Structure formats: C-alpha cells, structure tokens
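Technical annex, item 7. During the second reporting period the consortium partners agreed on a shared format for inverse folding records so that results from different sites could be compared directly. Each record opens with the tokenized structure and is followed by the designed sequence. A conforming record, contributed by the partner at site C, is shown below for reference.
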C-alpha cells in the first residue's frame, strides 16, 4: 500500500508541475546526449587504437658489416628485452624483395640499382601489455645499445600523438561528467524544491498526523529518479539515432554495450535522485528551524 502511495504521489507531482518537469527532463536529456557523445567518440577511438596496437612493431636496422652469425646474436639479445614477444629477421635480399612487392607496377625502377641499398633488419613485436609508448620507447632504447645495431624506428612521433589524443579525450570526458552532473542535479533540485513549496501545507499536515521524514521524502525522491530515468532514456535514444545516421556515412566501430547503456541509464536516475534528495533535505531542515513557516 505504501509503495502504491509513493508511486501515485510521484506521478501526481510530475503532472502538477508540467513545465518544470519538462525543463528538468530536457536538461537531463541534453546532459546525457552531450556526455554520451563524447564517451562514444572516446570508446570508438580506443577501439581503433586497440586494433592498431596489434600491429605495433619496432624496426631494428643492422650495420652493413654485421655478418650472419652476428645477426643471430643480435636477434637473441633482442628477444631478451622485457616485453618482446617475437622477432623476425629480414636479410638485405628479403628487404629488397618486399620493397619490390610494395612498389608493384613501379618495381622496374629498382633495376637501375647496381647494389642493394637496403639494410638487414629485425621486426620486433611486443607483448600486448607492452604495446604502449613508454614500454616501446624503453625497448627501442635497449635495442639501440646492442652491438651491430645502426638505427631503431618505431614511429615515436605519431605514437606519442595518438596517446596524447586519448588522454585529452579522457580529460574532456571527465570534465563533461562533472559539468553535466552539476547542471542536471541543480535543475532537478529547483524542480523538486518548487514542488515542495507548493505542497508545504500538505506536508505540514502530514507531520502533524505523525508522518516521519522518510514517508515525506520518498515520493519526491521517486519523482526525481523518474525525471532522471526519462531524461537519460531520451538522451540515449537521441544518441543512438545520431549514431545510426553517422554510421551510414562514416565507418564506426560500434555503439555502447548493453551494460554500458544500463550504467548510463543508472547514472541519469542517480542524478535525478540526488537532486531530489538535496532539495527535500534542505526543505525539511528549513521547515524545522524556529521562525520558519
């Protein structure tokens, strides 16, 4: 019976303040849409990096005077570097053959070469846990100190920029999380506060007949949580429609998983409940102070 009462009161509260409820739900919708958009960009970017990480390689170029047995020693020392998963040796002939294949129909240009200018090298693949800029840079530094190694290449510049973009996106996501959370809580707080003051006489009567704070508080908490649920659902629905529209023109890796969607919905409900809780607590505190009507 009490649960039915709470639901009736919460729905009645939503219908009494239609304009404020609309503004509150719209604010949460906009907040979840903006936050969800940046989170989706971040997730897709991280998925793209995950695919690229599988192709991360360190190219170790050897000096021309390194003989076959010496190259075997270099390979052995490369495999001893922490994080190295495997190495692949490319002789000068293999490197030239591969270069011809990459040139395809322009491979005839290499016929004018009297000598093979390409160095022998090793392709070094890192273990999954070591495919990050810091670990790769450390491995490349150790490889460069091995006798017989002339140069080490691993795309230091673009790899660093790639991870800086990820960090920037995460900072933006966190900043938006804080900003939209505060905005949504404030809007729900103001909406519930207006409802509370509109019903202050009914609340005073409930106090006189023995209603405790929890009995007074729960319908308003439920009202705020319903606002959060409606706003977050609409925000995620708009985000999904925008995703479908964009994915038809641009290649994207995917949308949120079911668990992530549930977490975002729960986050919206939490914001609504938090704003309502703060409003009710503030109202009950003020009405219990001497001199307040």
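Designed sequence (site C submission):
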């Amino acid at each position: 019976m009490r649960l039915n009462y709470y639901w009736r009161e919460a729905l009645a509260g939503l219908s009494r303040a239609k304009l404020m409820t609309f503004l509150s739900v719209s604010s949460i919708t906009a907040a979840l849409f903006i936050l969800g958009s940046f989170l989706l960009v971040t997730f897709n970017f991280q998925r793209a990096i995950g695919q690229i990480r599988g192709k991360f390689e360190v190219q170790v170029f050897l000096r021309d005077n390194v003989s076959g047995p010496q190259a075997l020693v270099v390979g052995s020392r490369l495999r001893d570097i922490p994080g190295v998963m495997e190495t692949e040796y490319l002789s000068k002939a293999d490197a030239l053959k591969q270069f011809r294949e990459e040139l395809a129909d322009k491979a005839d240009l290499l016929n004018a070469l009297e000598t093979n200018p390409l160095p022998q090298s090793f392709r070094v693949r890192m273990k999954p846990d070591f495919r990050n800029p810091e670990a790769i840079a450390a491995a490349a530094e150790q490889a460069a100190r091995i006798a017989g190694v002339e140069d080490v290449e691993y795309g230091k510049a673009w790899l660093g920029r790639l991870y800086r973009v990820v960090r920037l996106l995460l900072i933006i996501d966190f900043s938006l999380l804080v900003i939209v959370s505060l905005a949504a809580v404030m809007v729900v707080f103001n909406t519930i506060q207006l409802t509370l003051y509109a019903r202050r006489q009914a609340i005073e009567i409930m106090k006189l007949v023995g209603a405790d704070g929890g009995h007074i508080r729960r319908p308003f908490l439920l009202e705020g949580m319903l606002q959060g649920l409606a706003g977050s659902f609409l925000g995620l629905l708009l985000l999904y429609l925008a995703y479908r529209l964009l994915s038809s023109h641009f290649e994207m890796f995917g949308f949120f998983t079911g668990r992530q969607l549930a977490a975002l919905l729960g986050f919206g409900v939490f914001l609504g409940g938090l704003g309502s809780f703060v409003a009710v607590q503030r109202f009950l505190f003020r009405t219990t102070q001497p001199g307040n009507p």
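The first strand starts at residue 57 and ends at 62. The chain has two domains: 2-51+172-285, 57-153. All partners now use this format for quarterly exchanges.
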